[in-house]
## 1
Amino acid sequence: MGKLIKFDHVNAHGDFEKLLSQYGIDYSKKGAQLRALCPLHEDTNPSLSVALEAEGDTLANTFHCFGCHQSGSIIDFAAHLDGGTLREAAEIVAELSGCGLAPAKTPKPAKASKRPAKDAKGSKREKPRPQTDKAAEGHSAPSERASEAKQSNQPLKFELKLDGAHPYALERVGQWGWFQFGIGVLDAASRSMMAGRCCVPIHNAEGDLIAYAGRHIGEDPDAQKWLLPPGFQKQQTLFNLHRVAGAEQVVLVEGFFDVVRLAQFGIPAVACMGTAVSDTQVALLKAANVRRVVLAFDGDDEGQAAVPAALSVLTRSLFTRLGALPVGEDPGSADEMVLRQLIA
Ligand SMILES: [Zn+2]
């Protein structure tokens, strides 16, 4: 049932800025060049470069990373991010760019296809803009950080194909983790940044998929344990909120697997994905009509040290109780009896 895809067309007309925004990747723009933290490796200063227009040997609408040395077209980049095939990546790019999979049939298509991608959209006008105008676009200027943040955590336009029967997934979260939460392992040969990781789909309060968190599986002590997409705003989301909306009381925990374990016993839980609770997260709970919160951070030093700050944010507007766990225990590993006492 394959639709006709003209890869040249999509590569030429794909909108790199929209693609980066879609994946929550913060970028700065200088002339026809974009710079960003590279999502294909663990990047600490922006080594991803995107050329919107051809220059020298560089083709238009291509990327190159000076850190991991990967490069290619906009479709290649989308395929790296989403881990799917080039066809799927081309569909993603075409849809979010609104350029179609192939040139529209017009009476005189001859010249239109040779035109550089951006000309039609008037990027020439954008190029020499002064700093103040750039700020108005929401890129690069520090004063606009807040508005950038508001634009992140947008619904994803793709889904990763995960393996819920992978031994690691089964051991960590059981079949329940797959059926209820869609947790599974992404093929290590995938080109996604989450390749080989145990991935947890994250949704917003409306139930739209907005990101994947990836847990490192192997023994490598240097690997980052949990990976989130660049630009993802943890503090604007509560993991699992869309599934517990309507519950009068929820248990607030640190991590994804804590939520899964509590859910196995029918205990509604959400995770703040760390040890910080934000005002936005409190507002989300209130909007979901949650009235009471049981705070159950991990029983380790880090979790317990974060309790006072979390309580002070929560108690400002929600009835909050501290759910005590035995020292050293966390909700992801505690006995059923201990967990049930949290909500008793
Ligand atoms: Zn890179």
## 2
Amino acid sequence: MRIMSIENVKPGMTVAKTVFGASCQNLLNAGTVLSEEYITRLKDLEVSSLYILDDNFGDIDIDDIVCDQTRLEAGNFVKDVMEHMKLGKGFDPGQAKRIINSVIEELLSSKELLVKLVDIRSISDYTYFHSVNVAVLSGIIGIGLGYSHLRMQELMIGSLFHDIGKTMLCDQVSCEPSSIEGEPSGDMKKHPLLGFEILKRNKNLSILSAHVAFQHHERYDGTGYPRKLAGPEIHEYAKIVAITNTYDLLTTD
Ligand SMILES: [Fe+2]
């Protein structure tokens, strides 16, 4: 199988992995032969890419580092939290820890972390699942660095909510993943500080997770924002998330 952009798939191709909707419902089962109508419907649902059977790739299978169910649960949790924040409500840090713990468990039980970086893209409402990808990728780096469970949790909760400050900037567009190019203009530059303030109010979360939100757009050479921190002034967690956030944005259609 291989992953293809929705713009390039054609009628007659066979879906290799089930396509999910944002509420965990199956949109199209694995094995379905695509028709023009299916493709149009998937585009309407903003599915950006899907896995297609391809003879050239033989029976190469792409395992998930974290199963679809866990990713969907985490993505939907992020979505709920973001929507609650917009309404001025809080969120349950205990649930965030439970979800991150199950992701950590799956990461630690995976034997081939480095060759299985392909993740869930066959999904509508990708916005919230970007945060999950960043958390998973950051967790992989954390494992590589020999992090303890506590450090993994601090890093990955910070990763999951790195853009939570955008909920204070109101509209739906503001919650979309950031562009990787340059410094944003206007209010968008405030989202790291706003995210820091939201997360630090949660006494059950580590202040270091809040600093991930605060520092994830800082750059090692001091060209980032909002404070133009450089080198050792940037916390290691934020350095990791700066990389994984950019990686996921670069590899998203
Ligand atoms: Fe951001």
